[in-house]
Amino acid sequence: MSTSSADLETVARVADRIRANVERVIEGKSDVVHSTLVVLLAEGHLLIEDVPGVGKTQLAKALARSIDGTVRRIQFTPDLLPSDVTGVSIFNQNTREFEFRPGGVFANIVIGDEINRASPKTQSALLECMEEHQVTVDAMTYQLEAPFLVIATQNPIEMEGTYVLPEAQRDRFMARVSIGYPPAAAEMAMIANHAGANPLDDLEPVTDAAEIRKLIGIVNQIHVAEPIQRYAVGIVAATRASGELSLGASPRATLHLIRAAKASAALQGRDFVLPDDITALAATVLAHRLLPSAEAALAGRQVTEVLRSLVSAVPVPSA
């Protein structure tokens, strides 16, 4: 099934409404909001990593409130248990049967606040639901309703009381973004807009879960030519062969890169993916999955620098 111009106009119209709504709360970060929309429409999950106070949780809440779906927030703390995330079976004395009490992941949008303050054991409770959109408790499997998006925030790992995310956990996040400090003009606007009240309190939904499912279906129909597929595979393969990386990107990363590129193309009004879509998303989709080699770390080479060099060395397919 091909993607019509009317379908692309629908994607653009709804995305613009969500973007405008979120930017009422997050000033001067249109690129971060765009990346968030890409992940939403590509059926991925988003990791927001930055220092405290730059609006990580505000961004997640603003997106959640813009979509009239179910929203749950999980505050990750050292004493959080896996059953708090997935749910637990409790024996009912009246019926003499076990009843399942759903955990925090049973929502369209799950906000995992400061995910790296919980133990790796608790973080692992997210693995099945993020990959397979289901939860298994006591040999019973429960499906999660679409759309299902995990937006996790984390502080840099050097900060006190944080854990490094397990590799399997990082690999399930389609993209990692950093909000950064706002420009001076945006910070002045923030003072004016946030001084009297929090704009988040007045935020109303601009779409619903059913419409998001429709947009995801449109994005799935975006065409990716074989040369573009080979280009994405070439970039991912280069990370595995690099001597500056001790851990390259997985096949899941290749799929995430293609899906994100399709969403990005749809948001730009195209029914096909360009090499530029792949190049522009490579760092956002791949960097958090890679680990530098000991030699690269000693030389002070950042993963993003290594990845940039690898991407520039992969031949770009011609028109």
What's the total helix number? 14
- The separation of the N and C termini measures 23 Å
What integer is the average pLDDT?
90
SSE series: HHEHEEHEEEHHEEEHEHEHHEHHEHH
Biggest sheet descriptor: 5 strands, parallel
- β-strand amount: 15-25%
Based on CA atoms alone, the radius of gyration comes out at 20 Å
Shape: globular
Indicate the percent of residues in helices. 40-55%
Coarse structural class? alpha/beta
* Number of E strands: 13
Stretches where pLDDT is under 50 for at least 5 consecutive residues are: none
Q: Numbering strands along the chain, what is their spatial order in the largest sheet? A: 3-6-9-1-10
Give the SSE layout.
Blueprint: H1 5-22, H2 30-41, E1 46-49, H3 56-66, E2 67-68, E3 71-75, H4 82-86, E4 87-92, E5 97-102, E6 109-113, H5 120-123, H6 127-132, E7 134-137, E8 140-143, E9 149-154, H7 167-171, E10 175-177, H8 184-194, E11 207-208, H9 209-220, H10 226-241, E12 245-247, H11 251-267, H12 275-286, E13 291-292, H13 294-298, H14 303-313
Parallel strand pairs: 1-9, 1-10, 2-11, 3-6, 6-9
Antiparallel strand pairs: 4-5, 7-8, 12-13
